[in-house]
């Protein structure tokens, strides 16, 4: 009986040790999963910080970027944030982190949505048509970025760090993450000033007077003069060439030219017009008119242009 009692007691001790060992292994595994989760989030957050920094530094000072290059960079930032959001969604989430994960996904959904909209509106904001509404829309997206920062700092970080602390993990706290560096970007005027520097510049020239004027118009190579009808052949179509002069001190980008005839308006564009130079927009008239035609030519004002009287001209064309 004594031997049996000793054997039973020994077996019980062994069972307890096995249970404790299994529990220790499970606890260690759970802690590793929590640490891995925190490490993965930290990596994404740090990459997000770099993207945010480059985006707002470029917005503050576009440097030598052309309009096209600036837009391309914004699109690249948008793509990066979309990728971060996808990586957040794909994280393996330990059970204790389920609430924090849901809030983290919301924060990154706001960031991705905001950057998507900013990217889509940047082209309009740097052009003439709808620029004001586009800048207003971009300023609204800055509010989403601020909201994402609040969710991360006030909800996600405390939740994650709390779970880590409850499990005795003290070296894996999440870093801060502030996508919106300054609340000044919530103001439409700040966004407008920043993007205005890009839309009216090239090679870093953001200051100076802005303006263009019609430098001459030809139809199938024949020079047109206001008040003096010109006769041309329309057998092979009619092409209007509008020379646009930039007489001032700022390079202009995306200069739009419109020709209106018989209720139809056709447009052309000069991608870049350096200060003191002349560019030409070639505009085919489609459909081809015939007989006596009145042409109304307009160079659309560039951002910051104050004198527009020399941007319009009217010609009479006799097409045989």
Notes on the protein architecture:
With 320 residues, the protein is an alpha+beta fold. The protein folds into two domains: 11-199; 213-319, Sandwich (Immunoglobulin-like). 49% of the residues lie in helices and 20% in strands. The chain contains five helices and nine strands. The chain has helices spanning 2-60, 67-89, 98-125, 131-166, 188-199, and strands at 213-219, 222-223, 230-232, 239-245, 252-261, 264-273, 278-284, 291-299, 312-319. The chain is elongated, with a radius of gyration of 32 Å.
Helix content: 40-55%
Please identify the structural class as seen in this structure. alpha+beta
- Tally of separate domains: 2
Write down the Rg: 32 Å
Q: What is the tally of beta strands?
A: 9
SSE pattern: HHHHHEEEEEEEEE
Unreliable stretches (pLDDT < 50, length at least 5) are: 22-28, 201-207
Please work out how many helical segments DSSP would assign: 5
| Mean pLDDT metric | 86
Q: How would you sum up the global shape?
A: elongated
Distance between the termini: 127 Å
The percent range for strand residues is 15-25%
Q: Strand order across the biggest sheet?
A: 3-9-8-5-6
């Amino acid at each position: 009986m004594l031997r049996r009692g000793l054997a039973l007691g020994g077996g019980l001790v062994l069972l307890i040790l096995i249970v404790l060992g299994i529990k220790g292994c499970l606890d260690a595994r759970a802690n590793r999963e929590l640490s891995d989760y925190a490490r993965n989030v930290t990596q994404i957050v740090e990459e997000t910080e770099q993207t945010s920094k480059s985006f707002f530094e470029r917005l503050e000072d576009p440097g030598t970027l052309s309009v096209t290059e600036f837009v391309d960079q914004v699109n690249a930032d948008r793509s990066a944030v979309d990728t971060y959001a996808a990586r957040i969604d794909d994280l393996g989430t330990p059970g204790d982190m389920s609430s924090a994960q849901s809030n983290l996904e919301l924060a990154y959904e706001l960031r991705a949505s905001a950057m998507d909209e900013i990217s889509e509106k940047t082209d309009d904001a740097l052009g003439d048509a709808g620029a004001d509404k586009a800048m207003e829309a971009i300023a609204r997206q800055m509010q989403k970025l601020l909201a994402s920062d609040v969710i991360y700092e006030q909800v996600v970080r405390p939740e994650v760090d709390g779970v880590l602390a409850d499990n005795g993990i003290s070296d894996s706290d999440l870093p801060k993450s502030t996508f919106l560096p300054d609340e000044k970007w919530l103001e439409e005027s700040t966004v407008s000033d920043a993007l205005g520097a890009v839309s009216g510049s090239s090679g870093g020239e953001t200051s100076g007077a802005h303006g263009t004027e019609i430098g001459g118009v030809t139809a199938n190579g024949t020079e047109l003069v206001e008040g003096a009808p010109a006769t041309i052949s329309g057998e092979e179509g009619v092409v209007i060439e509008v020379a646009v002069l930039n007489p001032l001190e700022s390079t202009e980008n995306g200069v739009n030219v419109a020709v209106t005839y018989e209720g139809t308006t056709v447009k052309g564009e000069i991608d870049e017009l350096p200060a003191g130079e002349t560019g030409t927009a070639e505009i085919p008239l489609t459909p081809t008119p015939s007989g006596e035609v009145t042409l109304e030519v307009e160079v659309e004002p560039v951002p910051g242009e104050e004198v527009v009287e020399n941007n319009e001209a009217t010609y009479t064309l006799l097409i045989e």
